[in-house]
Amino acid sequence: MAGADEAGGASARPRRADAVRNQQTLLAAAAAVFVDSGVDAPIREIAKRAGVGMGTIYRHFPTRADLVVAVYRHQVEACAEAGPALLAEEESPFTALERWVDLFVDFLVTKHGLADALRSDSGGFEALHAYFLDRLVPVCGQLLDAAVGAGEAGPGVEPYELMRGVGNLCVGRDDDPRYDPRRLVELLLRGLRP
Protein backbone atom coordinates (compact mmCIF):
# COMPACT_ATOMS: atom_id res chain seq x y z
CA MET A 1 0.00 0.00 0.00
CA ALA A 2 2.80 2.39 0.79
CA GLY A 3 4.23 1.85 -2.68
CA ALA A 4 0.87 2.68 -4.24
CA ASP A 5 0.69 5.88 -2.21
CA GLU A 6 4.20 6.83 -3.24
CA ALA A 7 3.42 6.13 -6.89
CA GLY A 8 0.19 8.10 -6.63
CA GLY A 9 2.03 10.96 -4.97
CA ALA A 10 4.71 10.97 -7.64
CA SER A 11 2.20 10.94 -10.50
CA ALA A 12 0.09 13.61 -8.80
CA ARG A 13 2.96 16.13 -8.73
CA PRO A 14 3.00 16.89 -12.48
CA ARG A 15 -0.76 17.34 -12.46
CA ARG A 16 -0.40 19.69 -9.52
CA ALA A 17 2.15 21.79 -11.42
CA ASP A 18 -0.22 21.86 -14.41
CA ALA A 19 -3.07 22.85 -12.12
CA VAL A 20 -1.00 25.70 -10.69
CA ARG A 21 -0.10 26.90 -14.21
CA ASN A 22 -3.75 26.66 -15.26
CA GLN A 23 -4.82 28.61 -12.21
CA GLN A 24 -2.20 31.31 -12.95
CA THR A 25 -3.51 31.54 -16.53
CA LEU A 26 -7.05 31.84 -15.22
CA LEU A 27 -6.04 34.58 -12.74
CA ALA A 28 -4.20 36.53 -15.45
CA ALA A 29 -7.29 36.32 -17.68
CA ALA A 30 -9.56 37.42 -14.83
CA ALA A 31 -7.25 40.35 -14.06
CA ALA A 32 -7.34 41.46 -17.71
CA VAL A 33 -11.13 41.23 -17.77
CA PHE A 34 -11.38 43.15 -14.48
CA VAL A 35 -9.17 45.93 -15.91
CA ASP A 36 -11.36 46.12 -19.03
CA SER A 37 -14.80 45.55 -17.50
CA GLY A 38 -14.55 45.80 -13.69
CA VAL A 39 -14.90 43.14 -11.01
CA ASP A 40 -18.57 42.64 -11.85
CA ALA A 41 -17.70 41.34 -15.33
CA PRO A 42 -19.58 38.16 -16.26
CA ILE A 43 -17.79 34.94 -15.33
CA ARG A 44 -18.37 33.69 -18.90
CA GLU A 45 -16.20 36.58 -20.16
CA ILE A 46 -13.37 35.45 -17.87
CA ALA A 47 -13.83 31.81 -18.90
CA LYS A 48 -13.70 32.75 -22.57
CA ARG A 49 -10.53 34.82 -22.14
CA ALA A 50 -8.89 32.01 -20.12
CA GLY A 51 -10.00 29.32 -22.59
CA VAL A 52 -11.75 27.28 -19.89
CA GLY A 53 -15.30 26.38 -18.98
CA MET A 54 -17.23 28.29 -16.34
CA GLY A 55 -17.25 25.16 -14.19
CA THR A 56 -13.45 25.31 -13.99
CA ILE A 57 -13.62 28.81 -12.58
CA TYR A 58 -16.27 27.87 -10.01
CA ARG A 59 -14.30 24.76 -9.03
CA HIS A 60 -11.28 26.92 -8.17
CA PHE A 61 -13.22 29.96 -6.91
CA PRO A 62 -16.71 29.14 -5.57
CA THR A 63 -17.64 32.83 -5.09
CA ARG A 64 -16.84 36.05 -6.93
CA ALA A 65 -15.16 37.33 -3.76
CA ASP A 66 -12.84 34.28 -3.80
CA LEU A 67 -11.90 35.07 -7.41
CA VAL A 68 -11.39 38.79 -6.77
CA VAL A 69 -9.17 38.11 -3.74
CA ALA A 70 -7.13 35.55 -5.72
CA VAL A 71 -6.69 38.03 -8.60
CA TYR A 72 -5.67 40.71 -6.10
CA ARG A 73 -3.02 38.47 -4.54
CA HIS A 74 -1.85 37.32 -7.98
CA GLN A 75 -1.39 40.93 -9.10
CA VAL A 76 0.39 41.94 -5.89
CA GLU A 77 2.88 39.11 -6.47
CA ALA A 78 3.25 40.01 -10.16
CA CYS A 79 4.00 43.66 -9.22
CA ALA A 80 6.40 42.60 -6.48
CA GLU A 81 8.32 40.28 -8.81
CA ALA A 82 8.30 42.79 -11.68
CA GLY A 83 10.25 45.48 -9.83
CA PRO A 84 13.60 43.67 -9.58
CA ALA A 85 13.13 42.12 -13.03
CA LEU A 86 12.55 45.54 -14.61
CA LEU A 87 15.60 46.97 -12.86
CA ALA A 88 17.69 44.13 -14.27
CA GLU A 89 16.41 44.41 -17.86
CA GLU A 90 16.06 48.16 -18.36
CA GLU A 91 19.06 50.37 -19.09
CA SER A 92 17.55 53.20 -17.08
CA PRO A 93 16.27 52.82 -13.49
CA PHE A 94 13.72 55.56 -14.21
CA THR A 95 12.37 53.58 -17.19
CA ALA A 96 12.08 50.57 -14.88
CA LEU A 97 10.15 52.75 -12.41
CA GLU A 98 7.84 54.02 -15.18
CA ARG A 99 7.12 50.49 -16.41
CA TRP A 100 6.50 49.30 -12.85
CA VAL A 101 4.11 52.17 -12.16
CA ASP A 102 2.23 51.22 -15.35
CA LEU A 103 1.77 47.68 -13.95
CA PHE A 104 0.76 49.20 -10.63
CA VAL A 105 -1.92 51.30 -12.36
CA ASP A 106 -3.37 48.14 -13.96
CA PHE A 107 -3.42 46.59 -10.52
CA LEU A 108 -5.11 49.61 -8.96
CA VAL A 109 -7.82 49.67 -11.60
CA THR A 110 -8.60 46.03 -10.79
CA LYS A 111 -8.40 46.67 -7.03
CA HIS A 112 -11.03 49.38 -7.30
CA GLY A 113 -13.97 46.99 -6.92
CA LEU A 114 -12.34 44.90 -4.22
CA ALA A 115 -14.06 46.62 -1.30
CA ASP A 116 -17.49 46.03 -2.86
CA ALA A 117 -16.68 42.38 -3.55
CA LEU A 118 -15.65 41.89 0.09
CA ARG A 119 -18.48 43.93 1.65
CA SER A 120 -19.15 41.39 4.39
CA ASP A 121 -15.50 40.85 5.31
CA SER A 122 -13.86 44.13 6.35
CA GLY A 123 -11.21 42.21 8.33
CA GLY A 124 -10.29 40.32 5.16
CA PHE A 125 -10.00 43.58 3.25
CA GLU A 126 -7.72 45.07 5.93
CA ALA A 127 -5.51 41.96 5.88
CA LEU A 128 -5.22 42.21 2.09
CA HIS A 129 -4.33 45.89 2.31
CA ALA A 130 -1.57 45.13 4.84
CA TYR A 131 -0.28 42.37 2.52
CA PHE A 132 -0.31 44.85 -0.37
CA LEU A 133 1.75 47.39 1.57
CA ASP A 134 4.19 44.80 2.93
CA ARG A 135 4.92 43.44 -0.55
CA LEU A 136 4.86 46.58 -2.73
CA VAL A 137 6.22 49.50 -0.71
CA PRO A 138 9.72 47.94 -0.52
CA VAL A 139 9.68 47.24 -4.28
CA CYS A 140 8.68 50.82 -5.06
CA GLY A 141 11.41 51.97 -2.66
CA GLN A 142 14.02 49.88 -4.48
CA LEU A 143 12.99 51.40 -7.83
CA LEU A 144 12.95 54.96 -6.45
CA ASP A 145 16.35 54.51 -4.78
CA ALA A 146 17.84 53.20 -8.04
CA ALA A 147 16.43 56.16 -10.00
CA VAL A 148 17.71 58.65 -7.40
CA GLY A 149 21.10 56.90 -7.31
CA ALA A 150 21.37 57.20 -11.10
CA GLY A 151 20.51 60.91 -10.94
CA GLU A 152 17.27 60.30 -12.85
CA ALA A 153 14.94 61.28 -10.00
CA GLY A 154 15.21 63.86 -7.29
CA PRO A 155 15.50 62.71 -3.66
CA GLY A 156 12.86 63.16 -1.00
CA VAL A 157 9.87 61.20 -2.33
CA GLU A 158 8.85 58.29 -0.11
CA PRO A 159 7.66 55.06 -1.79
CA TYR A 160 4.36 55.05 0.09
CA GLU A 161 3.82 58.69 -0.86
CA LEU A 162 4.35 57.93 -4.57
CA MET A 163 2.10 54.86 -4.45
CA ARG A 164 -0.60 56.81 -2.65
CA GLY A 165 -0.39 59.63 -5.22
CA VAL A 166 -0.69 57.18 -8.11
CA GLY A 167 -3.60 55.50 -6.31
CA ASN A 168 -5.40 58.79 -5.82
CA LEU A 169 -5.04 59.59 -9.53
CA CYS A 170 -6.61 56.22 -10.37
CA VAL A 171 -9.73 56.86 -8.30
CA GLY A 172 -12.68 57.81 -10.46
CA ARG A 173 -11.67 55.93 -13.58
CA ASP A 174 -14.79 53.77 -13.27
CA ASP A 175 -17.06 56.78 -12.85
CA ASP A 176 -15.97 58.73 -15.92
CA PRO A 177 -14.94 57.08 -19.20
CA ARG A 178 -13.40 60.40 -20.31
CA TYR A 179 -10.86 60.22 -17.50
CA ASP A 180 -7.56 58.46 -18.21
CA PRO A 181 -5.45 58.29 -15.06
CA ARG A 182 -2.38 57.24 -17.06
CA ARG A 183 -1.96 60.75 -18.48
CA LEU A 184 -1.84 62.27 -15.01
CA VAL A 185 0.36 59.50 -13.64
CA GLU A 186 2.79 60.27 -16.48
CA LEU A 187 2.79 63.95 -15.40
CA LEU A 188 3.37 62.88 -11.79
CA LEU A 189 6.37 60.78 -12.80
CA ARG A 190 7.79 63.63 -14.86
CA GLY A 191 7.68 65.69 -11.68
CA LEU A 192 10.12 63.24 -10.06
CA ARG A 193 12.82 64.19 -12.55
CA PRO A 194 15.54 66.48 -11.14
UniProtKB/TrEMBL annotation:
The organism's superkingdom is given as Bacteria
Oxidoreductase keyword on record = no
Q: Please give the Gene3D superfamilies that the UniProt record associates with this protein.
A: Tetracycline Repressor, domain 2
**Name used for this protein in its record:** Helix-turn-helix transcriptional regulator
Q: Which residue ranges carry the DNA-binding annotation?
A: 42-61
Is the keyword Transcription regulation in the record? yes
- The HTH tetR-type domain covers which part of the protein? 20-79
User: Which Pfam families does the entry link to?
Assistant: TetR_C_43, TetR_N
InterPro entries according to UniProt = Homeodomain-like_sf, HTH-type_TetR-like_transc_reg, HTH_TetR, Tet_transcr_reg_TetR-rel_C_sf, TetR_SbtR-like_C
Instruction: Alphabetically list the UniProt keywords.
Output: DNA-binding, Transcription, Transcription regulation
